[in-house]
Design brief:
Length: 490
Protein backbone atom coordinates (compact mmCIF):
# COMPACT_ATOMS: atom_id res chain seq x y z
CA UNK A 1 0.00 0.00 0.00
CA UNK A 2 1.22 3.48 -0.75
CA UNK A 3 2.73 5.84 1.74
CA UNK A 4 2.16 9.56 2.00
CA UNK A 5 5.30 10.48 0.06
CA UNK A 6 4.62 8.11 -2.82
CA UNK A 7 6.86 9.98 -5.27
CA UNK A 8 9.97 9.83 -3.14
CA UNK A 9 10.31 6.66 -1.10
CA UNK A 10 9.89 3.85 -3.61
CA UNK A 11 13.23 2.25 -4.43
CA UNK A 12 13.46 2.24 -8.21
CA UNK A 13 15.46 -0.26 -10.20
CA UNK A 14 18.13 1.52 -12.16
CA UNK A 15 18.67 4.40 -9.74
CA UNK A 16 22.07 4.84 -8.12
CA UNK A 17 21.60 5.93 -4.53
CA UNK A 18 24.00 8.50 -3.14
CA UNK A 19 25.08 8.53 0.49
CA UNK A 20 23.46 10.84 3.02
CA UNK A 21 26.46 13.18 2.91
CA UNK A 22 25.75 13.82 -0.75
CA UNK A 23 22.61 15.84 -0.02
CA UNK A 24 24.48 19.16 0.21
CA UNK A 25 26.04 18.45 -3.18
CA UNK A 26 22.59 18.38 -4.78
CA UNK A 27 21.77 21.79 -3.37
CA UNK A 28 25.14 23.20 -4.48
CA UNK A 29 24.60 21.74 -7.94
CA UNK A 30 21.18 23.37 -8.09
CA UNK A 31 22.63 26.78 -7.38
CA UNK A 32 25.37 26.33 -9.99
CA UNK A 33 22.88 25.11 -12.60
CA UNK A 34 20.66 28.12 -12.02
CA UNK A 35 23.59 30.44 -12.78
CA UNK A 36 25.08 28.64 -15.76
CA UNK A 37 22.16 27.16 -17.70
CA UNK A 38 22.12 28.20 -21.38
CA UNK A 39 19.66 30.80 -22.61
CA UNK A 40 16.21 29.28 -23.09
CA UNK A 41 17.00 26.33 -20.82
CA UNK A 42 17.54 28.16 -17.52
CA UNK A 43 15.86 26.59 -14.48
CA UNK A 44 12.73 28.46 -13.45
CA UNK A 45 12.87 30.27 -10.15
CA UNK A 46 10.64 29.16 -7.26
CA UNK A 47 9.42 32.43 -5.72
CA UNK A 48 7.32 30.80 -2.98
CA UNK A 49 9.40 27.71 -2.19
CA UNK A 50 11.61 27.50 0.87
CA UNK A 51 13.65 24.77 2.50
CA UNK A 52 15.89 22.05 1.05
CA UNK A 53 14.06 21.71 -2.28
CA UNK A 54 13.82 25.41 -3.13
CA UNK A 55 16.91 25.36 -5.38
CA UNK A 56 16.17 22.06 -7.15
CA UNK A 57 17.10 22.64 -10.82
CA UNK A 58 14.01 22.32 -13.00
CA UNK A 59 13.80 23.30 -16.68
CA UNK A 60 10.42 23.09 -18.43
CA UNK A 61 9.86 23.15 -22.18
CA UNK A 62 7.02 22.30 -24.55
CA UNK A 63 7.69 21.13 -28.11
CA UNK A 64 5.65 22.37 -31.06
CA UNK A 65 3.78 19.04 -31.13
CA UNK A 66 2.68 19.51 -27.52
CA UNK A 67 5.09 17.14 -25.77
CA UNK A 68 6.19 18.50 -22.40
CA UNK A 69 9.83 18.18 -21.39
CA UNK A 70 11.25 18.56 -17.88
CA UNK A 71 15.01 18.54 -17.25
CA UNK A 72 16.95 18.47 -13.99
CA UNK A 73 20.72 18.61 -14.58
CA UNK A 74 22.94 17.34 -11.75
CA UNK A 75 26.52 16.65 -12.81
CA UNK A 76 27.99 14.70 -9.88
CA UNK A 77 27.05 11.15 -10.93
CA UNK A 78 27.92 10.15 -14.54
CA UNK A 79 24.50 8.71 -15.36
CA UNK A 80 21.25 9.98 -16.79
CA UNK A 81 17.69 8.85 -16.18
CA UNK A 82 14.85 9.14 -18.69
CA UNK A 83 11.23 8.89 -17.56
CA UNK A 84 8.50 9.02 -20.18
CA UNK A 85 4.98 9.32 -18.78
CA UNK A 86 1.83 8.86 -20.83
CA UNK A 87 -1.39 10.39 -19.54
CA UNK A 88 -3.32 7.16 -19.83
CA UNK A 89 -4.11 4.63 -17.15
CA UNK A 90 -6.90 2.23 -16.44
CA UNK A 91 -9.14 5.20 -15.56
CA UNK A 92 -9.21 6.03 -19.30
CA UNK A 93 -10.55 2.61 -20.29
CA UNK A 94 -14.13 1.82 -21.26
CA UNK A 95 -16.37 -0.95 -19.94
CA UNK A 96 -15.67 -4.09 -21.93
CA UNK A 97 -12.20 -2.82 -22.89
CA UNK A 98 -10.36 -3.08 -19.57
CA UNK A 99 -6.69 -3.98 -19.16
CA UNK A 100 -5.52 -2.11 -22.28
CA UNK A 101 -3.33 0.41 -20.43
CA UNK A 102 -1.52 -2.38 -18.62
CA UNK A 103 -1.30 -4.48 -21.79
CA UNK A 104 0.78 -1.74 -23.39
CA UNK A 105 3.24 -1.86 -20.52
CA UNK A 106 4.06 -5.25 -22.07
CA UNK A 107 3.56 -4.37 -25.73
CA UNK A 108 6.01 -1.47 -25.60
CA UNK A 109 8.92 -3.90 -25.29
CA UNK A 110 7.92 -6.03 -28.29
CA UNK A 111 9.73 -3.98 -30.90
CA UNK A 112 9.11 -0.97 -33.13
CA UNK A 113 9.96 0.04 -36.69
CA UNK A 114 13.73 0.27 -36.13
CA UNK A 115 14.06 -1.89 -33.02
CA UNK A 116 13.61 -5.66 -33.11
CA UNK A 117 11.69 -7.58 -30.47
CA UNK A 118 13.78 -7.73 -27.28
CA UNK A 119 16.40 -5.34 -28.68
CA UNK A 120 15.30 -2.45 -26.45
CA UNK A 121 16.32 -4.50 -23.41
CA UNK A 122 19.60 -5.64 -24.97
CA UNK A 123 20.69 -2.16 -26.06
CA UNK A 124 20.13 -0.72 -22.59
CA UNK A 125 21.50 -3.61 -20.54
CA UNK A 126 24.60 -4.07 -22.70
CA UNK A 127 25.56 -0.50 -21.89
CA UNK A 128 25.22 -1.00 -18.16
CA UNK A 129 21.73 0.50 -17.95
CA UNK A 130 18.44 -0.64 -16.48
CA UNK A 131 14.84 -0.12 -17.59
CA UNK A 132 11.24 -0.93 -16.84
CA UNK A 133 7.66 0.32 -17.06
CA UNK A 134 4.63 0.46 -14.75
CA UNK A 135 0.91 1.12 -15.00
CA UNK A 136 -1.51 2.65 -12.52
CA UNK A 137 -5.08 3.89 -12.60
CA UNK A 138 -3.76 7.36 -13.44
CA UNK A 139 -0.84 6.92 -15.89
CA UNK A 140 1.61 4.61 -17.66
CA UNK A 141 5.35 5.21 -17.45
CA UNK A 142 8.55 3.87 -19.01
CA UNK A 143 12.02 4.62 -17.71
CA UNK A 144 15.69 3.80 -18.09
CA UNK A 145 19.02 4.75 -16.55
CA UNK A 146 22.13 4.89 -18.70
CA UNK A 147 25.71 6.17 -18.65
CA UNK A 148 25.51 9.87 -19.40
CA UNK A 149 27.16 9.47 -22.82
CA UNK A 150 24.26 7.20 -23.91
CA UNK A 151 21.48 9.75 -23.43
CA UNK A 152 20.71 9.87 -27.15
CA UNK A 153 20.27 6.11 -27.31
CA UNK A 154 17.56 6.23 -24.67
CA UNK A 155 15.78 9.10 -26.38
CA UNK A 156 15.92 7.39 -29.78
CA UNK A 157 14.48 4.16 -28.37
CA UNK A 158 11.60 5.95 -26.68
CA UNK A 159 10.83 8.05 -29.74
CA UNK A 160 10.83 5.04 -32.07
CA UNK A 161 8.25 3.15 -30.06
CA UNK A 162 6.12 6.27 -29.59
CA UNK A 163 6.12 6.75 -33.35
CA UNK A 164 5.85 3.21 -34.70
CA UNK A 165 5.30 0.45 -32.15
CA UNK A 166 4.86 -3.04 -33.61
CA UNK A 167 1.23 -3.62 -32.61
CA UNK A 168 0.95 -6.81 -34.63
CA UNK A 169 -1.36 -9.79 -34.25
CA UNK A 170 1.59 -11.95 -33.16
CA UNK A 171 2.76 -9.51 -30.49
CA UNK A 172 -0.75 -8.91 -29.24
CA UNK A 173 -1.51 -12.60 -28.89
CA UNK A 174 1.79 -13.25 -27.14
CA UNK A 175 1.36 -10.43 -24.64
CA UNK A 176 -2.32 -11.12 -24.07
CA UNK A 177 -1.30 -14.55 -22.77
CA UNK A 178 1.55 -13.00 -20.77
CA UNK A 179 -0.92 -10.73 -18.96
CA UNK A 180 -3.26 -13.63 -18.26
CA UNK A 181 -0.37 -15.56 -16.75
CA UNK A 182 0.57 -12.50 -14.68
CA UNK A 183 -2.98 -12.38 -13.37
CA UNK A 184 -2.79 -16.03 -12.33
CA UNK A 185 0.60 -15.71 -10.67
CA UNK A 186 0.25 -12.31 -9.03
CA UNK A 187 -3.40 -12.39 -8.00
CA UNK A 188 -5.29 -15.65 -8.37
CA UNK A 189 -2.57 -17.70 -6.65
CA UNK A 190 -1.43 -15.16 -4.03
CA UNK A 191 -2.98 -14.82 -0.57
CA UNK A 192 -5.15 -11.73 -0.15
CA UNK A 193 -4.30 -10.38 -3.61
CA UNK A 194 -7.79 -10.60 -5.12
CA UNK A 195 -9.16 -8.81 -2.04
CA UNK A 196 -6.93 -5.84 -2.97
CA UNK A 197 -8.99 -5.61 -6.17
CA UNK A 198 -12.35 -6.32 -4.58
CA UNK A 199 -12.14 -3.51 -2.02
CA UNK A 200 -11.90 -0.98 -4.85
CA UNK A 201 -14.94 -2.49 -6.57
CA UNK A 202 -16.92 -2.26 -3.34
CA UNK A 203 -15.80 1.22 -2.34
CA UNK A 204 -16.14 2.87 -5.74
CA UNK A 205 -19.27 1.03 -6.81
CA UNK A 206 -20.43 2.32 -10.20
CA UNK A 207 -17.57 4.84 -10.47
CA UNK A 208 -15.89 2.91 -13.26
CA UNK A 209 -12.53 4.75 -13.55
CA UNK A 210 -11.34 3.49 -10.15
CA UNK A 211 -13.66 0.57 -9.47
CA UNK A 212 -12.08 -1.74 -12.02
CA UNK A 213 -8.53 -3.04 -11.67
CA UNK A 214 -5.51 -1.92 -13.63
CA UNK A 215 -4.70 -5.46 -14.71
CA UNK A 216 -8.21 -5.65 -16.15
CA UNK A 217 -10.84 -8.30 -16.64
CA UNK A 218 -9.36 -11.29 -18.45
CA UNK A 219 -12.63 -11.80 -20.32
CA UNK A 220 -12.18 -8.36 -21.85
CA UNK A 221 -8.65 -9.19 -23.01
CA UNK A 222 -9.78 -12.53 -24.44
CA UNK A 223 -12.55 -10.83 -26.42
CA UNK A 224 -10.52 -7.81 -27.56
CA UNK A 225 -9.91 -7.55 -31.31
CA UNK A 226 -6.53 -6.41 -32.60
CA UNK A 227 -8.17 -3.32 -34.12
CA UNK A 228 -9.27 -2.09 -30.68
CA UNK A 229 -5.74 -2.49 -29.31
CA UNK A 230 -4.24 -0.66 -32.28
CA UNK A 231 -6.77 2.15 -31.85
CA UNK A 232 -5.84 2.50 -28.17
CA UNK A 233 -2.18 2.92 -29.11
CA UNK A 234 -2.89 5.45 -31.87
CA UNK A 235 -5.12 7.44 -29.52
CA UNK A 236 -3.02 7.73 -26.38
CA UNK A 237 0.61 7.19 -27.37
CA UNK A 238 1.02 10.66 -28.82
CA UNK A 239 3.57 13.35 -27.99
CA UNK A 240 0.90 15.78 -26.78
CA UNK A 241 -0.22 13.14 -24.28
CA UNK A 242 3.26 12.60 -22.83
CA UNK A 243 5.77 14.13 -20.44
CA UNK A 244 9.47 13.40 -20.88
CA UNK A 245 11.74 13.98 -17.89
CA UNK A 246 15.55 13.79 -17.93
CA UNK A 247 17.66 13.94 -14.81
CA UNK A 248 21.39 13.56 -14.15
CA UNK A 249 24.68 14.33 -15.87
CA UNK A 250 23.83 16.16 -19.09
CA UNK A 251 23.96 19.58 -20.71
CA UNK A 252 20.40 20.97 -20.91
CA UNK A 253 20.89 22.77 -24.21
CA UNK A 254 22.33 19.71 -25.92
CA UNK A 255 19.66 17.47 -24.36
CA UNK A 256 16.90 19.69 -25.67
CA UNK A 257 18.42 19.56 -29.17
CA UNK A 258 18.37 15.74 -28.97
CA UNK A 259 14.79 15.72 -27.76
CA UNK A 260 13.71 17.94 -30.65
CA UNK A 261 15.69 15.81 -33.12
CA UNK A 262 14.01 12.57 -32.09
CA UNK A 263 10.55 13.67 -30.89
CA UNK A 264 9.98 16.99 -32.63
CA UNK A 265 8.61 15.54 -35.89
CA UNK A 266 6.16 13.14 -34.26
CA UNK A 267 2.58 14.03 -35.03
CA UNK A 268 0.30 15.18 -32.27
CA UNK A 269 -3.04 13.43 -31.87
CA UNK A 270 -6.57 14.22 -30.77
CA UNK A 271 -6.70 13.04 -27.16
CA UNK A 272 -10.17 12.21 -25.82
CA UNK A 273 -10.99 14.49 -22.88
CA UNK A 274 -11.16 12.76 -19.52
CA UNK A 275 -14.59 13.63 -18.15
CA UNK A 276 -15.74 11.01 -15.69
CA UNK A 277 -19.12 11.12 -14.05
CA UNK A 278 -19.31 12.36 -10.48
CA UNK A 279 -18.66 9.85 -7.72
CA UNK A 280 -22.02 9.52 -5.99
CA UNK A 281 -21.83 10.11 -2.21
CA UNK A 282 -21.99 6.97 -0.13
CA UNK A 283 -24.97 7.00 2.22
CA UNK A 284 -24.57 3.77 4.19
CA UNK A 285 -21.84 1.38 5.24
CA UNK A 286 -20.98 -1.34 2.73
CA UNK A 287 -19.84 -4.68 4.10
CA UNK A 288 -18.93 -7.91 2.37
CA UNK A 289 -17.15 -11.13 3.28
CA UNK A 290 -15.10 -13.06 0.74
CA UNK A 291 -13.33 -16.39 1.06
CA UNK A 292 -9.71 -16.56 -0.10
CA UNK A 293 -8.52 -20.11 -0.82
CA UNK A 294 -4.88 -18.98 -0.53
CA UNK A 295 -5.20 -17.24 2.84
CA UNK A 296 -4.07 -18.88 6.06
CA UNK A 297 -5.32 -16.17 8.42
CA UNK A 298 -8.35 -13.89 8.31
CA UNK A 299 -7.85 -10.29 7.26
CA UNK A 300 -9.89 -7.17 6.59
CA UNK A 301 -9.94 -3.92 4.63
CA UNK A 302 -11.56 -0.65 5.65
CA UNK A 303 -11.88 2.14 3.08
CA UNK A 304 -13.21 5.69 3.53
CA UNK A 305 -13.83 8.17 0.74
CA UNK A 306 -11.58 11.24 0.91
CA UNK A 307 -10.70 14.10 -1.50
CA UNK A 308 -8.12 13.71 -4.30
CA UNK A 309 -4.36 14.04 -3.80
CA UNK A 310 -2.94 17.52 -3.25
CA UNK A 311 -6.26 19.00 -2.16
CA UNK A 312 -5.94 20.87 1.16
CA UNK A 313 -7.42 18.15 3.38
CA UNK A 314 -5.36 15.39 1.80
CA UNK A 315 -2.18 16.52 3.56
CA UNK A 316 -3.52 16.16 7.12
CA UNK A 317 -5.22 12.91 6.10
CA UNK A 318 -1.85 11.54 5.01
CA UNK A 319 -0.34 12.63 8.32
CA UNK A 320 -3.21 10.94 10.16
CA UNK A 321 -2.51 7.70 8.30
CA UNK A 322 1.14 7.86 9.32
CA UNK A 323 0.29 8.40 12.98
CA UNK A 324 -2.20 5.55 12.98
CA UNK A 325 -0.31 2.94 11.01
CA UNK A 326 3.22 3.87 9.89
CA UNK A 327 5.74 1.54 11.47
CA UNK A 328 6.08 -0.15 14.82
CA UNK A 329 5.74 3.04 16.85
CA UNK A 330 2.35 3.93 15.33
CA UNK A 331 -0.76 3.88 17.46
CA UNK A 332 -2.50 0.89 15.90
CA UNK A 333 0.63 -1.23 15.65
CA UNK A 334 1.45 -0.64 19.29
CA UNK A 335 -2.09 -1.41 20.45
CA UNK A 336 -3.19 -4.21 18.13
CA UNK A 337 0.05 -6.01 17.25
CA UNK A 338 2.32 -5.55 20.27
CA UNK A 339 0.04 -5.04 23.26
CA UNK A 340 -3.16 -6.95 22.51
CA UNK A 341 -1.72 -9.36 19.89
CA UNK A 342 -4.94 -9.19 17.88
CA UNK A 343 -3.23 -8.54 14.54
CA UNK A 344 -0.26 -10.07 12.79
CA UNK A 345 0.16 -6.79 10.94
CA UNK A 346 -1.69 -3.57 10.23
CA UNK A 347 -1.12 -0.73 7.77
CA UNK A 348 -2.88 2.58 7.15
CA UNK A 349 -2.47 4.83 4.11
CA UNK A 350 -4.10 7.08 1.59
CA UNK A 351 -4.22 5.60 -1.91
CA UNK A 352 -3.08 8.88 -3.52
CA UNK A 353 -5.17 9.03 -6.67
CA UNK A 354 -5.57 12.05 -8.93
CA UNK A 355 -9.33 11.69 -8.58
CA UNK A 356 -11.57 10.68 -5.65
CA UNK A 357 -9.30 8.94 -3.18
CA UNK A 358 -9.54 6.38 -0.39
CA UNK A 359 -8.18 6.28 3.15
CA UNK A 360 -7.36 2.60 3.65
CA UNK A 361 -6.77 0.30 6.59
CA UNK A 362 -5.47 -3.20 5.94
CA UNK A 363 -4.83 -5.87 8.56
CA UNK A 364 -3.94 -9.54 8.72
CA UNK A 365 -5.36 -10.87 11.98
CA UNK A 366 -3.69 -13.09 14.53
CA UNK A 367 -4.97 -16.65 14.67
CA UNK A 368 -8.23 -16.98 16.56
CA UNK A 369 -9.42 -13.39 16.06
CA UNK A 370 -11.95 -11.81 13.73
CA UNK A 371 -12.37 -8.50 11.98
CA UNK A 372 -15.59 -7.88 13.88
CA UNK A 373 -13.61 -8.12 17.11
CA UNK A 374 -10.72 -5.89 15.99
CA UNK A 375 -12.31 -3.10 13.93
CA UNK A 376 -13.85 -1.26 16.93
CA UNK A 377 -10.30 -0.57 18.13
CA UNK A 378 -9.56 1.10 14.79
CA UNK A 379 -12.71 3.19 14.95
CA UNK A 380 -11.96 4.26 18.53
CA UNK A 381 -8.39 5.22 17.62
CA UNK A 382 -9.68 7.58 14.93
CA UNK A 383 -12.35 8.96 17.25
CA UNK A 384 -9.75 9.55 19.96
CA UNK A 385 -7.73 11.75 17.59
CA UNK A 386 -10.92 13.56 16.54
CA UNK A 387 -11.63 14.31 20.20
CA UNK A 388 -8.14 14.87 21.64
CA UNK A 389 -5.81 15.47 18.70
CA UNK A 390 -2.28 14.09 18.44
CA UNK A 391 0.71 14.70 20.64
CA UNK A 392 3.48 17.13 19.79
CA UNK A 393 5.88 14.18 19.67
CA UNK A 394 3.72 12.35 17.12
CA UNK A 395 3.44 15.42 14.95
CA UNK A 396 7.20 16.01 15.06
CA UNK A 397 7.84 12.37 14.19
CA UNK A 398 5.73 12.44 11.03
CA UNK A 399 7.18 15.82 10.03
CA UNK A 400 10.67 14.34 10.34
CA UNK A 401 9.69 11.24 8.38
CA UNK A 402 8.29 13.26 5.50
CA UNK A 403 11.18 15.72 5.48
CA UNK A 404 13.78 12.94 5.25
CA UNK A 405 11.81 11.10 2.59
CA UNK A 406 11.56 14.17 0.37
CA UNK A 407 15.20 15.19 0.62
CA UNK A 408 16.86 11.80 0.37
CA UNK A 409 14.23 10.28 -1.92
CA UNK A 410 15.10 12.73 -4.69
CA UNK A 411 18.81 11.94 -4.72
CA UNK A 412 18.77 9.29 -7.42
CA UNK A 413 18.48 10.48 -10.99
CA UNK A 414 15.62 8.07 -11.67
CA UNK A 415 13.48 8.98 -8.66
CA UNK A 416 13.95 12.66 -9.44
CA UNK A 417 13.00 12.22 -13.12
CA UNK A 418 9.90 10.22 -12.21
CA UNK A 419 8.79 12.68 -9.56
CA UNK A 420 9.17 15.66 -11.89
CA UNK A 421 7.34 13.91 -14.73
CA UNK A 422 4.48 13.02 -12.42
CA UNK A 423 4.13 16.54 -11.05
CA UNK A 424 4.18 17.98 -14.56
CA UNK A 425 1.57 15.52 -15.79
CA UNK A 426 -0.75 15.41 -12.78
CA UNK A 427 -0.61 19.00 -11.61
CA UNK A 428 0.57 20.91 -14.67
CA UNK A 429 3.86 22.26 -13.27
CA UNK A 430 6.93 20.28 -12.19
CA UNK A 431 8.22 23.23 -10.15
CA UNK A 432 5.43 22.64 -7.63
CA UNK A 433 7.64 19.90 -6.23
CA UNK A 434 9.89 22.56 -4.71
CA UNK A 435 7.18 23.73 -2.32
CA UNK A 436 5.45 20.38 -1.76
CA UNK A 437 7.40 19.61 1.41
CA UNK A 438 6.30 22.96 2.85
CA UNK A 439 2.66 21.90 2.51
CA UNK A 440 3.24 18.79 4.61
CA UNK A 441 5.23 20.64 7.24
CA UNK A 442 2.47 23.24 7.53
CA UNK A 443 0.02 20.58 8.78
CA UNK A 444 -0.88 21.20 12.43
CA UNK A 445 -2.35 19.05 15.17
CA UNK A 446 -5.61 20.96 14.75
CA UNK A 447 -5.67 20.06 11.03
CA UNK A 448 -5.27 16.37 11.81
CA UNK A 449 -7.90 16.54 14.53
CA UNK A 450 -10.35 18.26 12.19
CA UNK A 451 -10.07 15.72 9.34
CA UNK A 452 -10.26 12.83 11.82
CA UNK A 453 -13.66 14.15 12.80
CA UNK A 454 -14.84 14.89 9.26
CA UNK A 455 -14.30 11.87 6.98
CA UNK A 456 -14.81 8.78 9.13
CA UNK A 457 -18.54 8.39 9.60
CA UNK A 458 -19.86 4.84 9.30
CA UNK A 459 -21.92 5.88 6.28
CA UNK A 460 -18.67 6.75 4.46
CA UNK A 461 -17.10 3.37 5.22
CA UNK A 462 -16.61 0.19 3.19
CA UNK A 463 -15.53 -3.00 4.95
CA UNK A 464 -14.28 -6.22 3.37
CA UNK A 465 -13.60 -9.28 5.52
CA UNK A 466 -11.29 -11.89 4.02
CA UNK A 467 -11.59 -15.39 5.48
CA UNK A 468 -9.58 -18.54 4.77
CA UNK A 469 -11.26 -21.80 3.86
CA UNK A 470 -12.59 -23.80 6.76
CA UNK A 471 -9.81 -26.11 8.01
CA UNK A 472 -10.29 -29.87 7.83
CA UNK A 473 -11.51 -31.49 11.02
CA UNK A 474 -8.65 -31.94 13.48
CA UNK A 475 -6.23 -29.66 11.60
CA UNK A 476 -3.70 -27.60 13.54
CA UNK A 477 -4.41 -23.85 13.86
CA UNK A 478 -2.80 -21.67 11.16
CA UNK A 479 0.43 -19.76 11.66
CA UNK A 480 1.13 -16.25 10.33
CA UNK A 481 2.28 -16.23 6.68
CA UNK A 482 5.96 -15.53 6.07
CA UNK A 483 5.36 -13.05 3.25
CA UNK A 484 3.62 -9.71 3.45
CA UNK A 485 0.28 -9.41 1.62
CA UNK A 486 0.20 -8.38 -2.00
CA UNK A 487 0.35 -4.69 -2.86
CA UNK A 488 -2.85 -2.99 -3.80
CA UNK A 489 -2.16 -2.02 -7.43
CA UNK A 490 -2.51 -2.81 -10.23
Amino acid sequence: MKRAWRWFTTTQRGGRRMGLLAAPLILVAAAVAAQTAPSGTRPTSPPSATGPLAALPIIRQRLANGMRVVMSPERYVPTVAIALYYDVGSRNEEPGRTGFAHLFEHMMFQGSENVAKGEHFRLIINRGGQLNGTTSHDRTNYFETLPSNELELGLWLEADRMRALAVTAENFENQRHAVMEERRQSYDNQPYATSMLRINELAYGDYFPYAHSTIGDMRDLQAAPLSAVQSFYRTYYRPNNAVLAISGDFDPEEALRLVIRHFGRLERGVIPPYRPAELRPQTEERHETMQDPNAELPAFHIAYHIPPSRTPDHYPLEMLALILGDGESSRLYQQLVKERELCAEIAVSTDDRRGPDLFSVWSVLAAGHTGEEVRPFVYRAIEDIAQRGVTERELQKVHNRVRAAFVFGLQTNLSRAQSLAEFEMYWGDATLIRSELDRYLAVTSDDIRRVAGQYFAATNRTVLDVVPPAPPAGAAPPTPPAARPARRQP
